[in-house]
Structures are given as C-alpha cells and as structure tokens.
From TrEMBL, chain A:
GO biological process, one term: endoplasmic reticulum to Golgi vesicle-mediated transport
Descriptive protein name: Trafficking protein particle complex subunit 6B
Function: Component of a transport protein particle (TRAPP) complex that may function in specific stages of inter-organelle traffic. Specifically involved in the early development of neural circuitry, likely by controlling the frequency and amplitude of intracellular calcium transients implicated in the regulation of neuron differentiation and survival.
UniProt-listed Pfam families: TRAPP (PF04051)
GO CC annotations, alphabetized: cis-Golgi network; endoplasmic reticulum; trans-Golgi network; TRAPP complex
Transmembrane segments: none
Name of the gene encoding the protein in the UniProt record: trappc6bl
InterPro entries: NO_sig/Golgi_transp_ligand-bd (IPR024096), TRAPP_component (IPR007194), TRAPPC6/Trs33 (IPR037992)
Subcellular location: Endoplasmic reticulum; Golgi apparatus, cis-Golgi network
Organism in which the protein naturally occurs: Salvelinus namaycush (Lake trout)
UniProt family annotation: Belongs to the TRAPP small subunits family. BET3 subfamily.
Keywords associated with the record: Endoplasmic reticulum, Golgi apparatus, Neurogenesis
Chief place of localization: endoplasmic reticulum
TrEMBL record, chain B:
Biological process according to GO: endoplasmic reticulum to Golgi vesicle-mediated transport
Protein name: Trafficking protein particle complex subunit 2-like protein
Keyword tRNA-binding listed: no
Coiled-coil region(s): none
Amino acid sequence: MADDVLFEFLHMEMVSHIYKDQASKGEMDKDRATCVSTLEGMGFRVGQGLIERFTKDSPSFKDDLDVMKFICKDFWINVFRKQIDNLRTNHQGTYVLQDNKFALLTQFSNGKQYLEEAPKYLAYSCGLVRGALSNLGMDCVVTAEVSLMPSCKFQVVIQKI
Amino acid sequence: MAVCIAVIAKENYPLFIRSVPVQNELKFHYTVHTSLDVVEEKISAVGKAMADQRELYLGLLYPTEDYKVYGYVTNSKVKFVIVVDSSNTSLRDNEIRSMFRKLHNSFTDVMCNPFYNPGDTIQSKAFDSIVSAMMVQAS
C-alpha cells in the first residue's frame, strides 16, 4: 500500500518549500535558523492536535515516565508505524529516545552520506514531540542528533519552573 | 438535558460557556467557577491515593438545592463541566457519561482544526451545534 509513503513525500516537499522560500527572500545569514523554527512550529501545532486525539480514551498518566513511555510506544507507532527502540533517562528530567530506523530518514542513506542535510528533516519531528508533551502538561526542549543514518536520537529535557 | 455547559482550559480560564436561561447567566458562571475547586481536589486526590487506572470522568462534583454539577477532565487537563437541573428526572450516570464523550469528541475535532489556536475561545459552529443539542430547549 502506498499510504505510508504519502506523509514522507509531503514532509520532503515541506522542507524544500520552506528552504526555497527563505532563499528567495534574501537574508542568507539567518535563513537556516528561521527555517528550522518554522518547521518546528508546524510540528508543535500538529503534535498538540494529535495528542488530543490519541489520549481521548486512555486513562490519565501517573507521572512523567509514564508519559514518555506512551510517546515511545503508542504515539510513535501511530505516527511512524514503529516503536522507539531505546529510551534512556537520568531520572532528573532528561530523556533520550533512540530510533534505529527513523521513518523520515530511511530513504537518505545507510551511513554517513548526506549527514549534513539530516537536521532539516528532523526539525518537524522535534516539534511534534514538543507539542505532544506540552499538551500533556510537560514543557520541554527537544533536540535531535544523527551520527549514523538512519538511526537518530531525540533528547527531551523537561523544564522545571 | 443540561442547563449549562462549560469548557475550561488548563490554566483555568473558560474557553466556552453556554447556559440556557440567559438571564441567570452570571449565576451559572459563578457555579462553574466554584466547581473548579472541587475538580482540582479530585484530580490531586486520585493521584496520591491509588496508582492504578484513573478515569477521565469525575462524576458528580457537588449538588446544590437546584442543580447538580458534573465534571470530566481530559489528558490535556482541559475540564468540561455540565450543570443539570435537579428538578429534572435525574439523568442516569450513563447518559451524563455519553454527553461528556460527545463533548470530548467534538473538542478533539476543534483542536485538530488548523484555524483554531489552542488557548482561544472556541468559535466553531460545529461545536456550538453539538452543545445546543445537549441543552434544555429554551421555552
């Protein structure tokens, strides 16, 4: 079925559109940061809506770890059709989610080729996780890093006021 | 049939309030406001007491002489409050639950609407019509 691939194509077009838009407006020095924040903002809003739909029937979460487990299992399955492969935490508000075969990066390469281009394609997913967590009451900062495609790590740092 | 329905955001300000006899509106606003305290109490009490499954439906919050107030909280900490007339033949628990379920479904649709910014008052006509269907018909 071609359904799975529809979002991947849309996502690729989104990224290239945002970057092309920025380039045509000029201001070459700060375009990279604005593009990333635009993509992240889009992901944020979508994450908020998605989480409302996914948690409609499930009972309330006991604590932060429970929320992270939900993100790693149900949320990731619904969005990327697989679970997170590894979740690590320091029990002090920092979580690292590792996905060994990230759905949006599988088409790029199987090693280090195109590594510099990868962060653009992770911005939207970072926003997605941030939006989901913020709607569940956890304010956080989400960053992503890739060292070897297609595996990537998302780092979630919960902001405690 | 409800007399007043309110949707309250995480930060405890109203996203949507509608009551049927429009002249008594202020009284209903006050009732909903005071019921928020009870909701907070229930949310925190359940958290400490039992570690097992917590339901979203909170049940009867408190009865006054004229009205009964029911509450429901979503996972994103948005609260729904329904006020029903006590003189009305008491609605069964299941009916109240199904009203909340419809409200939650409708609210989820509002959330997914790209023209809606989370935190704004709800302007959606679809949501409005679902709510009107649940309220007592104005005589």
